[in-house]
Amino acid sequence: QVRLVESGGGLVQAGGSLRLSCAASGRSFSRFTMGWFRQAPGKERQFVSSIGWSSGVTNYVDSVKGRFTISRDNAKSTLYLQMNNLKPEDTAVYYCAARSPGSVYYDYWGQGTQVTVSS
C-alpha cells in the first residue's frame, strides 16, 4: 500500500503562487510514476501533470504549461507542484496520485487539498 498526503493548498489572489506537496509512505516511492489531478465543483476530475520515476519525463495539460512545474524528491518520498501566475479557473481540489510500474491506471490517491484563486 502507498499512502499519499497532500498539503500546501489555500486561498491566493490571481497572479499569485502556491506550492503543493505530496508526502508518500509505504512502498518504494521512487518506482512510481506520480501525477497531479484536480477537480473543480461540478466538473470531472482533470489530469494536471505527471512525472516519471526518474524525473526525466514530465507532462502537463495545456492550460498549465509555462505556469506549473512538477518535481519530485525521491530521497524524501515527496512530490511537488509549483503553481505560478494562478488564475481563478485553477480553483479546484488538487489530488496527487501514484501509478505502479506497468499499471495503466493510477493505483493510489491522496485525500486532496483545496486551492482557491480569487479574482
- Secondary-structure class: mainly beta
Order of helices and strands: EEEEEEEEEEE
Got a strand count? 11
Helix residue percentage: under 10%
What radius of gyration results from the CA coordinates? 13 Å
Q: What oligomeric arrangement do these chains adopt?
A: single chain
Low-confidence stretches: none
Main β-sheet, in a few words?
Answer: 7 strands, mixed
Structure description:
With 119 residues, this protein is an all-beta fold. 0% of the residues lie in helices and 53% in strands. It contains no helices and eleven strands. Strands 2, 4, 5, 6, 9, 10 and 11 form a seven-stranded mixed sheet that branches. Strands 1-3-8-7 form a four-stranded antiparallel sheet, with no helix packed on it. Strand 7 and strand 8 form a beta hairpin. The model has no long low-confidence stretch (mean pLDDT 95).
TL;DR of this structure?
The protein has strands spanning 2-7, 10-13, 18-26, 33-39, 46-51, 58-60, 68-73, 78-83, 92-99, 108-109, 113-118. It is mostly beta strands. Strands 2, 4, 5, 6, 9, 10 and 11 form a 7-stranded mixed β-sheet that branches.
